[in-house]
Amino acid sequence: MIRKKRVYLVVLLTVLLASASAGFKAVASSVELRDDGLTIVYPKSTTDNNEPIQYVTLIVKSGYTHDSKGKIGLMGLTNELLYYIFRYETSASAVFHRTYAEMSIFNFEVSRRNIEGFYKELDDILRMDAIMLYDFCNSLVLYKKFAPQEPLMPAVEKLALRLYGSEHPYYLVYNREHNFNIADVNKCFRSVFRPNNMMISTSSKLPESFLRRPTGKNFQKEVKQAAAQSPNHEDGRTFDYTLAHDNSTLVCMGFIAPNMEEEGFFSMVFVQKYLQYKLTEVLRKRNGLVYYVDVNYNATEQTVAPAFKIYFQTLPEEAGNALSKTLQLLESIAEEGIPKQEEEYILKKEHKRLELRGESLKVMVYTAALKTLYDLEWIDDAEMYLAKLENSREQVPKVLSRGLKRLKVSVAGPKGTVLDDSILQNLRKED
Fold it and tell me: For residues 109 and 94, is the Cβ–Cβ distance under 8 A?
């Protein structure tokens, strides 16, 4: 079912955005830029800690945006193979990875008694001349190439097409060619995994010799890659319906929203948190119209031009009703803003969430990496984050109105999907 897949992806993105935007008490980090270009980050007062588990975040400043034409998906495949090696060939007790548009992230949890050995293992892997997993690589390529597509996924893909256009990498990620092999993977590995293209944030001291020993790769050559460009926004609203052979209907809608450095970003963060709560209440709890609802603002996954998106899965006969209620709520916020009482409720929830989370070593290491990468003070400063969130409330109607003028709606479902024409009167329907 599409539901499980969408929930999994959205949870990952939500956790990342929460970590990037929620923050904790401001923690001064020590940042070292080595002569070979490697950036090392130590959150304050972490390297002399006595915690039984140590944390390491490795960020590679390359993502699926940087895949060359005809090789879409290569960075993701390279990262999957490295994840396999990290997971089974190092002493890390847990490994997590994710390929984003402009970066790739590996998070490691390591027992304190194994941390020195882990650094040596990580060093050995990153200095390898080649990844030797020929059969595993071929199996992954074939699996991805011939795996059946979820019947409702066309709704997600069509929304991305409307948002970014057919040539933009943020859309092309849905159209991986899968025509590469281990030679392509090793070319990517050798050209991208270099010290000047990596950042390490850690809770324990990194050895001086890390990535200093001889290697067959050219670690000195600078990694040069073009950044993604902002898409040419398609003016006006659009609506698309795709016939799908399934017993449920997926509704997707969204628009390009401000990135983390643009005015209006915190207003949309506020809207995301409010709508996740409100739509769950209205569509699911109160009316029982949907199986689930996810409100997604992927500002950390696609940093140049993030999209604000809403997904919900429903019975075909309830699709029009659920869509109507969602559009009505969006228009109401754009005209009148969020009711004051509910604004205070959202702010109170944010205060409580930060209070309950406290200051964990794991998040300190991760947020220190993101703060250094993005150079944004509020990422690990809870007071600054909450102040910006509170001050953004007045701009919510203006920022949301601007987005709704470019709202794209994409629906995939069976023939029984009910969509009243009156609901779509302000949307352009294209076959």
Answer: yes
Tell me the mean pLDDT in the region 1-29: 45
Amino acid at 3: R
- The pLDDT tens digits for 140-166 are 988 888 888 899 999 999 999 999 988
For residues 7 and 119, the model is more confident at 119
What whole-number distance in Å separates Cα of residue 366 and Cα of residue 276?
Answer: 25
**CA quadruple 72, 191, 261, 98: dihedral sign:** positive
> Using an 8 Å Cβ cutoff, are 83 and 59 in contact?
no
Return d(Cα 405, Cα 426) in angstroms, integer. Answer: 10
Crossing angle for the helix pair 340-357 and 382-391, nearest 10 degrees? 170
Please state, in angstroms and rounded to a whole number, the distance separating the CA atoms of residues 375 and 41: 13
- Give the three-state DSSP class for 320: helix
The DSSP annotation for 45-92 comes to T-TT---SEEEEEEEES--GGGPPTT-TTHHHHHHHHHHHHHHHHS--
